[in-house]
Amino acid sequence: MAPTALALMRSRYSAYVMDNGAYLQATWHASTRAAEPIVAEAGLKWLGLDVRRHETEGDSAIVEFVARYKIDGRAHRLHEVSRFVREPDVAGVSRWFYVDGSFPEKGQLFGDRV
Question: Per the database record, which ranges form the YchJ-like middle NTF2-like domain (predicted)?
């Protein structure tokens, strides 16, 4: 269990690298979680994560990052500001969940899709 939103962000990035959709679903807040499983796009290769900023205020946090990846040999980057919330899980244990994210360069809100 991730002790901070930043630790959860890093573990979710690792889950993307390892194509661990079950972990991504389990750490995604129920209010915004996609109904369908997360499946990596064919030819996707993650190259690195650069955390630009993280702020925590009580049980809410944001993490701004840039993730680099390639699809079919073409380099891309995902610049996102992710929102996180800490609340009890189904067992009553307090933990962090990913809520959603926005693209600072485009001002667009999205869920957990690349």
Answer: 4-101
Buried b (16+ CB within 10 A) or exposed e, 79-111: bbbbbbbbeeeeeeeebbbbbbbbeeeeeeeee
Strand partners, 47: none
Distance CA 29, CA 72 (A): 31
Structure tokens at 75: 């380099």
Task: Taking the CA atoms of 54, 88, 10 and 75 in sequence, report the sign of the dihedral they define.
Answer: negative
Q: Which CATH architecture has domain 5-110?
A: Roll (3.10)
Q: Name the pTM for this structure.
A: 0.87
Tell me the pLDDT tens digit for each residue of 58-106.
999 999 999 999 998 899 999 999 999 999 988 999 999 999 999 887 6
